[in-house]
Design a protein that fits this description.
binds magnesium ion; ABC-type transport system involved in Fe-S cluster assembly, ATPase; ATP hydrolysis activity; single chain; alpha/beta; 245 residues; four-stranded antiparallel sheet; six-stranded mixed sheet; binds adenosine-5'-diphosphate; nucleotide-binding; ATP-binding; Rossmann fold
Length: 245
């Protein structure tokens, strides 16, 4: 479903990704790990079509079609959703209006029906009707921001969900509801790319198929199974990298 070939990406002329290859089939769960600055968010934002990230070589295919030069809106329409590492604050835009618009544009759901859907899903992620009238992410805690990203993902039900550190800056209770919702989407058949520093979030996610990619300096240097996470948690990235060098 997603095929990334020899992807090289630059920001403001500086190459950050130096040839990344990834293949994700429908419904698969891929975990991306790696030290800070290794290029995880760059990869996520490039797949989602962020205009700042310039593809200097290679290509991204989705559902058999090249999407490398498509804008983020078109990618979203095709079923790609990115939950940001740092969700942006949008002053003046209320959550409910934003979500209604997303559902109307992406799924063709009329506003009244969208409202019911949003309210129901919001409750599952501990947002009240009152919360939904707040501005998007303005004054939100880490846990609230990440729960709101998950709420969007649940409503959109994308084919491919990219989660950039959904577990960072999050309280334990939020973490448990977030991982349950990730599992719910996974069970429904959503393919997931999960960027994380911790195996903790995976403890709650029951899966038959899990692939782990480890990034270093703009490259995927190791791909393996769940055991790789245990090695990293026990011995750090060094243990993984020393085998490479
Ligand atoms: P990670 O998510 O793995 O921590 P990033 O993808 O955020 O890594 O960053 C990879 C590298 O790209 C880092 O060296 C970072 O400084 C650089 N970088 C990321 N975003 C920008 C940007 N907007 N402008 C310049 N450099 C950037
Ligand atoms: Mg980082
Ligand atoms: Mg990052």
């Amino acid at each position: 479903m997603l095929k990334i070939e020899d992807l090289r990406v630059a920001i403001e002329g500086k190459e950050i990704l130096h040839g990344v290859n990834v293949m994700v089939n429908p419904g698969e769960l891929h975990v991306v790990m790696g030290p800070n600055g290794s290029g995880k968010s760059t990869l996520a934002l490039t797949i989602a079509g962020h205009p700042r990230y310039e593809v200097v070589r290679g290509k991204i295919l989705f559902d058999g079609e090249e999407i490398t030069s498509l804008g983020p809106d078109e990618r979203a329409r095709r079923g790609i959703f990115l939950a940001f590492q740092v969700p942006p604050e949008v002053k003046g835009v209320r959550i409910i209006d934003f979500l209604q618009q997303v559902l109307t544009e992406l799924k063709g759901i009329d506003p009244a029906e969208a409202y019911e859907l949003i309210e129901e899903r919001a409750r599952e992620l501990w947002f009240t009707e009152e919360d939904l009238r707040r501005y998007v992410n303005v004054g939100f805690s880490g846990g609230e921001k990440k729960r709101l990203e998950l709420l969007q993902a649940l409503l959109v039900e994308p084919k491919l969900l990219i989660l950039d550190e959904p577990d960072s800056g999050v309280d334990v209770d939020s973490l448990s509801v977030i991982s349950r919702k990730i599992e719910e989407l996974h069970k429904k058949g959503t393919a997931i790319i999960l960027i994380t520093h911790y195996g903790r979030i995976l403890a709650h996610i029951d899966t038959d198929y899990l692939k782990v990619h480890v990034m270093k300096d703009g490259r995927i240097v190791r791909t393996g199974s769940k055991e790789l996470i245990e090695v990293i948690e026990r011995e750090g990235f060094k243990a993984v990298f020393s085998e490479v060098e």
